Recover the amino acids of this structure.
């Protein structure tokens, strides 16, 4: 049996290697034509076209999102999902390397369909997930039931570290508004109720709160409306606040504290306040250690060694968190530039089309295909992944 499994993995690696040039061309086409949240029409058309030509049953516009899709090969369970991201950053293009994520998921799906042992072992599901950078396509897909019958969700992310799992926090944005009463600041200053002063006081209160927050929790705000003229006491002021925390539970606690702070300021200043969620909530990422260990072992076959993340270092947030709290999922980072760099920069955008990125794309695609094959072919691995998932969900 072990020998047979090794043969399957070798066959998958060959399938990916045979497609290396075509996959790199897909990555470069996406890189040269960046599209943004929920408007990735050409990217979705390119990817679904490749999958449809390979024999996948493609459904477009899933979860009510025009640029989301699923592409299915096989039937019945088990079901393994490969996640494709393809949105870019306004002004920076593919400075998060989503062109590589899409090409890798595509290549792994095509390889799995081409190898008889994996093509007939269950269902391979390629899921197009728009708007990771803002809008939370995966979160919407989760709520729409796209992942309801899936046993594992797999993707990789290019980065500046070679880390087996992703230290990704929960995050959400809230809009806080204060309503006061307009007046002339000289003619009748006592009649005014300064909404902007209330908003400024909220920033002061949150600055004090920030010194007592646990690791990975923080609130960052901006003023989005502060009045219309200097000779009018502002009757309306508004701020947008980004909240992050290590876990979804901690994020909810932080949200409750933001609301309490706003209500306290309103009481003290004689204003009225409104606190409303402004974005989809990204949940924290829950790594499936049994699956991420498999991915790391398969990636080592290409000479790339993954390590645990550095303690106390967090790499932002992603809607993969919303998937990972429902089913076993992986989101390893594989470096395409040095640790002195950073994503969301012009330098990282250039790295996403570099020769190193091409090597990483081939290695990561092979590792994803082999990990997906393990999910399809090994009931014990699926049981271990689900057992770990349920144990973490219970904590």
């Amino acid at each position: 049996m072990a020998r047979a499994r090794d043969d399957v993995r070798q066959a998958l690696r060959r399938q990916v290697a045979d497609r290396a040039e075509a996959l790199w061309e897909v990555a470069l086409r996406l890189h040269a034509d960046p599209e943004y949240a929920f408007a990735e029409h050409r990217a979705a058309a390119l990817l679904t076209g490749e999958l449809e030509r390979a024999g996948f049953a493609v459904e477009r516009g899933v979860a009510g999102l025009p640029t989301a899709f699923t592409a299915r090969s096989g039937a019945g369970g088990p079901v393994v999902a490969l996640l494709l991201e393809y949105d870019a950053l306004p002004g920076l293009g593919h400075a998060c390397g989503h062109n590589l994520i899409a090409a890798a998921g595509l290549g792994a799906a095509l390889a799995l369909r081409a190898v008889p042992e994996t093509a007939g072992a269950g269902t391979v599901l390629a899921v197009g997930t728009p708007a990771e950078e803002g809008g939370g396509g995966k979160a919407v897909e989760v709520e729409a039931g796209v992942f309801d019958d899936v046993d594992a969700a797999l993707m990789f992310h290019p980065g500046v570290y070679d880390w087996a799992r992703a230290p990704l926090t929960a995050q959400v944005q809230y809009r806080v508004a204060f309503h006061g009463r307009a007046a002339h600041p000289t003619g009748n200053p006592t009649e005014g109720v300064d909404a902007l002063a209330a908003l400024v006081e909220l920033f002061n209160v949150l600055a004090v709160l920030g010194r007592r927050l646990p690791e990975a929790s923080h609130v960052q705000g901006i003023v989005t409306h502060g009045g219309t003229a200097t000779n009018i006491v502002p009757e309306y002021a508004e701020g947008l606040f980004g909240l992050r925390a290590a876990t979804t539970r901690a994020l909810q606690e932080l949200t409750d504290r933001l609301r309490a702070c706003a209500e306290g300021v309103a009481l003290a200043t004689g204003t009225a306040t409104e606190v409303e969620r402004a974005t989809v909530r990204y949940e924290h990422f829950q790594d499936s250690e049994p699956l991420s260990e498999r991915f790391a072992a398969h990636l080592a076959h290409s000479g790339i060694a993954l390590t645990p993340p550095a303690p106390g270092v967090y790499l932002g947030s992603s809607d993969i968190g919303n998937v990972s709290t429902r089913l076993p999922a992986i989101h390893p980072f594989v470096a395409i530039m040095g640790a002195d760099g950073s994503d969301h920069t012009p330098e990282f955008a250039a790295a996403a089309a570099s020769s190193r990125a091409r090597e990483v794309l081939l290695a990561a695609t092979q590792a994803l295909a082999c990990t997906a094959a393990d999910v399809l072919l090994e009931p014990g691995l699926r049981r271990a992944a689900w057992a770990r998932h349920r144990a973490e969900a219970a904590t």
In short: The first strand starts at residue 57 and ends at 60.
